[in-house]
Design goal:
Elements lengths: L2 E5 L2 E4 L4 E8 L8 E6 L6 E8 L5 E5 L7 E6 L4 E6 L8 E7 L14 E2 L3 E6 L1
Parallel strand pairs: 2-11
Antiparallel strand pairs: 1-3, 3-8, 4-5, 4-9, 5-6, 7-8, 9-10, 9-11
Length: 127
């Protein structure tokens, strides 16, 4: 059974930082695209960023415009994991953050193209 488990969410003040982790089990994602999505109350789930492996233990990273320069996604192939480092957080970043994985190495920003999902972790940014 494939599982993605997020951790690291919590409450942080505006301007602060938070790091999220996603641990995968049940299959290896080293050759697959993985991404982060978030869903704020009353809003649709939206793309945050994603990684696409290049085949030589490196990967490309893509970000939505609103988080560029503030968020950093990293992959750890050895641990079958992914992280999301978030800096300069603001109240608009408040959401449940989800880790997602695909069965292909091709990047996608569409949540409908991700087969595997974690349960989500809450990030709340206070003003």
């Amino acid at each position: 059974q494939v599982q993605l488990v997020e951790s690291g969410g919590g409450l942080v003040q505006a301007g602060g930082s938070l790091s999220l982790s996603c641990a995968a089990s049940g299959r290896t994602f080293s050759g697959s695209a993985m991404g982060w999505f978030r869903q704020a109350p009353g809003k649709e789930r939206e793309f945050v960023g994603a990684t696409a492996p290049t085949g030589d233990n490196t990967y490309y990273v893509y970000y939505t415009d609103s988080v560029k320069g503030r968020f950093t996604i990293s992959r750890d192939y050895a641990k079958n994991a992914m992280s999301l480092e978030m800096n300069s957080l603001n109240t608009e970043d408040t959401a449940v953050y989800y880790c997602a994985g695909r069965s292909t190495p091709i990047y996608s920003s569409s949540l409908y193209e991700y087969e595997y999902w974690g349960q989500g972790t809450q990030v709340t940014v206070s003003s």
